[in-house]
Description:
The complex is a heterodimer of chains A (103) and B (417). In chain A, 45% of the residues lie in helices and 10% in strands. The relative contact order of chain A is 0.17. Chain A has helices at 27-36, 43-57, 64-68, 75-81, 86-94, and strands at residues 2-6, 9-13. Chain A starts with a strand and ends in a 9-residue tail after the last helix. In chain A, strand 1 and strand 2 form a beta hairpin. With 417 residues, chain B is α/β, with parallel strands linked by helices. Chain B contains eight helices and 24 strands. In chain B, strands 5-2-1-9-20 form a five-stranded parallel β-sheet, with helices on one face. The longest helix of chain B has 19 residues, at 302-320. Chain B is globular, with a radius of gyration of 22 Å. Chain B starts with a strand and ends in a 25-residue tail after the last helix. In chain B, 49% of the residues are buried. Chains A and B meet through helix 3 and helix 4 of A and helix 4 and strand 21 of B.
Amino acid sequence: METLVMNNGKVDVNEEGYLKNPAQWTPELGHEIAKEVNIELTDRHFEVLNWLRAKQAEGVALSIRKVGNSGLVDIKEFYQLFPGGPLKISSKIAGIPKPVSCI
Amino acid sequence: MKNLVILGAGTAGTMMANKLYRDLNRKIWNITIIDKDEIHYYQPGFLFIPFGIYQPEDVVRTKAEFLPKGVNFIIGDIARIEGEKNQVLLKGGRTLPYDILIIATGANVVPEETPGLTGSLWHKDIFDFYTYEGATHLAKKLENWEGGKLVINLAETLIKCPVAPLEFAFLADAYFTEKGTRSKVEISYVTPLSGAFTKPKATKMLSALLEEKQIHVVPDFYLQEVDNHRKVLISYDQKEVPFDLLVTIPVNKGVDMIAASNLGDEDGLNFVPTDKQTLQSKKFENVFVIGDATNVPASKAGSVAHFEGEILLENILSYINNLPLEAKFDGHANCFIETGYGKAALIDFNYETEPLAGKFPWPVVGPMGLLKVNRANHFGKLAFKWIYWHILLTGKSLPVSSHMSMAGKEIEKKKSV
């Protein structure tokens, strides 16, 4: 099992750097992961990250459109906050699994 | 008498009607199933229509022929569910009271969600293959198409049968090769995900297929609009992909009646918040949800509806007997992936376990191979049509457990440190 050493201890991550256990996440850890992808997290980022974590915990399948329809941010803003691949990147920072297909 | 009402007579609804008719006490329970039309389409067959492998008539039957005679079949439009009053309202004013309700209204492609998708090029140079109309129009188009840029685009990640777009790409490669026009066709697979394959084992075992078949993958592309005039796809971050022929997999949504009933998830996609293990609705304890209509993080596929069906039957029987809902759905899915030239791959997975390599359904002998491309899998896929009509819809059990089995799967040994 791979581990990621962060300033507050060790967490288990997969080969792509996604947390294996969302419960090991802390806001500080979010900041650390965000730095690796050159994002400086603001309160606005955290609103999205917390929403994603709550939905994931409820057992809901996530998509970019779902975030866009959440009433929290529209898709344009989601892209501005997490450029490139917003759901893929925000999921990594939020400590939840990578959005995937079945294969 | 008590009433059990099923909304939707597709794969999941028909299967539940058969199972419940068999297992409920008919002196106590009236079973009613409602659908807006009479035709039952074999949806897995739509994929084969554009390539002339199936003819349109191969996928069309009537719904009535798969429902037990003792089940009331109503053809009508559902206006809304009134959960607080335990009743369903039909358009035209009829009211149906229920003691137990099963929502099996499925998911549909909604191309209108994306600006420009149903513009001037719709059914001229832009087609879907998830509907009977789309697949049959596309078959005519491909017959006479001389070549150019063929773009297969997933507008969204939460779609029915998530492997079908990839199968379409593989079958297109074989189709144009056999036709002798492959050198004139560029095939691109444009996806909002990080690649055509996203799970580690599947990527390792199957991604060579893309290179072998010269399918160009454009990852992380989330479609904002289609410019019909310039014939380009435009993403939310302003990337562009030009096309001559676009095969779109539009945004999928649940039916509008779900929103009218105030039963949908807050994201407006009309999928019903459902307990991912018990399949009970999160809002009303006498409402259950199955198949593509749920918001559970399982694939939207017939095999999933089948495995859910066994769990749901058990839980409805427990509910009637005031027992805890102990049957738990594990997200089990089992899908064939056609790769062209009479071969296919097969995957078997659940909420927790990614598709692994191995043999299926029996260890060692198979005869089908997981994450392997072979002829046995292809024959499995073709045989599935017979299984669908004769076993799956009629609510009988397959010789495959509802819960995913690890037997036959190859597990990597942990490296010792």
